[in-house]
């Protein structure tokens, strides 16, 4: 067997690998695993949104019949080599599709594909990880293996993938709406409240509309050197107040990016999972239109009014130190405790106090 890691150059669907990584970070909402086997080797891949990625592939050289006798010995050799091949595939499947930290599958489901010249079914071999066995959505037959077999397997499983994604989205939103219906205090919605809750590590599951049209701006006052973070929709960017702010000679735009992209990159440091939803289901449409397209399920009850109270206190602060989103540029850290990392969870959380390290 020959074994080689797939390099960037071999992933030929994306001419710009930087663009691929940028897009794929945002589209990690529903990731499915694919294992494509034939008598020449195996391809391991994932599908996330419209993004296909080859994780790994390796080749094999299985014995073939030559019609020269010794069929019994050849059959034994074929069986032994085939078992070794299946065993290696099963071991690599665990490596690629089981999270080493959580010990749980890192994909929503698995599609197994085999070419017609390779009849051994991985899922029935007894070597396949039971955790992945439970994630198998479909087994499909393809004419050939390799990358072309991968593409074919995606087409043959498109119906069940769409159903699973929609079912997952519906269940997620139903869970969120139940928290609201029961008035548990363990939910949040809208850009401002969601980012405030996110900043103190209160969000367990962050839910974002995959078409959220909000930009995140980092602005700096060129005179004082203070920075601030603002969020504007495209409609708000046409507002005279926004234009006055951006065109102010004392204001410098340090950074601008889609909020959904920033969340895809940064959500992990807040200790939360992120889920993307669409408008395709009734529940998804209600979330996108009725709750601002962004919200979350919280770890504990949180009264969001406390952020308004803290904001009022800061506005009345006569200490001369300007607070920017709860972050004091003078002290270099959280104004409520000794935390010095701008976007980290601080000690106030562990002390059951509300840290002032939050966003406007």
Concise synopsis of the structure shown:
By secondary structure, the protein is α+β, with helices and mostly antiparallel strands.
Structure description:
It is a single chain. This protein has 360 residues and is α+β, with helices and mostly antiparallel strands. It is 34% helix and 26% strand. The protein contains eleven helices and 16 strands. It has helices at residues 17-26, 71-97, 130-133, 146-156, 158-181, 191-199, 240-246, 259-266, 282-290, 305-315, 347-350; strands spanning 2-5, 31-38, 41-48, 51-59, 109-115, 136-142, 187-189, 203-209, 214-221, 227-233, 251-258, 273-277, 294-298, 323-324, 327-328, 333-334. Helix 5 (158-181) packs across helix 9. It is elongated, with a radius of gyration of 26 Å. 30% of the residues are buried. Mean pLDDT is 76; it is low at 2-28 and 318-360.
Please give the structural blueprint.
Blueprint (H helix, E strand, L loop, with lengths): L1 E4 L11 H10 L4 E8 L2 E8 L2 E9 L11 H27 L11 E7 L14 H4 L2 E7 L3 H11 L1 H24 L5 E3 L1 H9 L3 E7 L4 E8 L5 E7 L6 H7 L4 E8 H8 L6 E5 L4 H9 L3 E5 L6 H11 L7 E2 L2 E2 L4 E2 L12 H4 L10
Parallel strand pairs: 2-5, 5-6, 8-12
Antiparallel strand pairs: 1-4, 2-3, 3-4, 7-13, 8-13, 9-10, 9-11, 14-15, 15-16
Helix pairs in contact: 5-9
